[in-house]
Amino acid sequence: MSAASQPRTLAPSWLVVPDDANGLAPAVWPSGADRDDDGVLRLGGIAATELVERFGTPLYVLDEDDVRHHARRALDAFRAASALHGVQARVYYAGKAFLCTEVVRWVTDEGLAVDVCTGGELAVALAAGADPTRLGFHGSNKSAAELERAVEVGVGSIVIDSLLEIERLGAIVERRGATQNVLLRVNSGVHAETHDFLATAHEDQKFGFALEDAPAAVARIREVTGLSFIGLHCHIGSQIFGAAGFEESAARIVELHASLLGGGAIPVLNLGGGFGIAYTAADDPTPIEELAARIADAVARECEVRGIPMPHLAFEPGRTIVGQAGVTLYEVGTTKPVVLSEGVTRLYVSVDGGMSDNPRAALYGAQYSARIASRESAAAPVLARVVGKHCESGDIVVDAEYLPGDIAPGDLVAVPATGAYCFSLASNYNYVPRPPVVAVRGGEARVIVRGETVDDLIARDAGVHQTSMEGTKVPVLSERRSLSEPQARRNAEPK
Ligand SMILES: Cc1ncc(COP(=O)(O)O)c(C=O)c1O
């Protein structure tokens, strides 16, 4: 059944039947994405078919130029907006969006600082050679060992999240005779217009301090020898399209900031990240330049009203740096028209990954788009749902998309805007190995994070090793594994 003859009710209201179901909406795809003369999707100048031939599916592809472009763009936007008010801006890349050493090098090359929120993320940033003084360390439950390591390596700033942490960190700096710059995370009470699970400024949540509790916490920090209070920190949520929430939050935080100046100068105000990106052609996020200007203007206005000097600003964009640069390639295994009622059919397109490489649809109801990557098709578009191979009915990759009606097993499907919070949230559900990450640039592709194999996963099973070590007759790993074709190819790649 073609799109024209399908009942509209199955399609979400925002989804329109595309004029061309092969088209690549510029807001959603990396800037280097196009189709070659055979209609094959190219990423960073390389055909998707070639990438899959070399690295298998599923495959995370990251366009290096696109990451660098978005890093520069964010830095320029926040610097320019702040400079208009005579202050500086520091832009931290929020590593939680996608972290590996290569990405740390790209963004630090472009002039960004990096924020990390666990000892593991800190280790990656350090392994990449990042300057520790340009690292920020977050987290609502940092362990003593993580704080110790952060102080030991000389992390630039630590964002304190609880009263307990003030004492925990205080004891460490006192013992070490160190001085540590700290910020205090506060909840502005502004509810970002976004999915509830992402709205981290609600009061009934685990992060930070309520505005009214912050003065006592700051007073305590100022008492502790070795802790240097440099500013407030606030992050109101993620995937936010408009400026209004940021402006309102900035106003509330500046009021608190002003009330704390009696205890000493406060040089910095960190307003976090949360800047939205387009996941589908229907999304229309405010450009980062406009957001940056509106936020900086709001802070300047509030400072002026109160007659206080404007602090330097800091921001922590994650998704907006890497989101659009990432594309996930899958191979179609099965297609299944499912009859929902008389005359109402949904086409299920099953791919060889799913919620293990992208849990965002299952976690947040996130919407994505998709295209056939291995060819163009003139077939009339049909409403399809791209699903994974996991044992969950919520294992959805793309909830609703018009794909050419002749989509079939063996086709490659590309899902754009998967650069943020897919690799970082990936799991091994159903013992599915996590895919490799391949960076593309100028017609070259290279593995920047190797993929897992089933052997990697089995190797963690203590029972397997124990039995082997005790000499009990068990099949060796290589006998029991049965690798899929792409996995076998992937293993042949240099690691
Ligand atoms: C404190 C903090 N800063 C920055 C970010 C990055 O947010 P985004 O990737 O939406 O820009 C997050 C995301 O959860 C966060 O918790």
From TrEMBL:
Residue stretches making up the Orn/DAP/Arg decarboxylase 2 N-terminal domain: 81-322
Q: Which reaction does it catalyse?
A: meso-2,6-diaminopimelate + H(+) = L-lysine + CO2
Cofactor entry: pyridoxal 5'-phosphate
Q: Which residues carry this modification: N6-(pyridoxal phosphate)lysine?
A: 96
Segment Disordered: which positions? 469-495
- Please tell me where substrate binds in this chain: 319, 360, 364, 392, 421
* Membrane spanning stretches: none
InterPro entries associated with the record: Ala_racemase/Decarboxylase_C, DAP_deCOOHase_LysA, De-COase2_N, De-COase2_pyr-phos_BS, Orn/DAP/Arg_de-COase, PLP-binding_barrel
The organism's superkingdom is given as Bacteria
Q: Where does pyridoxal 5'-phosphate bind?
A: 274, 316-319, 421
Pathway(s) where this gene product acts: Amino-acid biosynthesis; L-lysine biosynthesis via DAP pathway; L-lysine from DL-2,6-diaminopimelate: step 1/1
| Pfam families reported in the protein's UniProt record | Orn_Arg_deC_N
EC nos: 4.1.1.20
Q: Which family does it belong to?
A: Belongs to the Orn/Lys/Arg decarboxylase class-II family. LysA subfamily.
Could you give the subunit structure recorded for this chain? Homodimer.
The molecule here is called Diaminopimelate decarboxylase
UniProt source species: Microbacterium pumilum
Q: What is the lineage of its organism?
A: Bacteria, Bacillati, Actinomycetota, Actinomycetes, Micrococcales
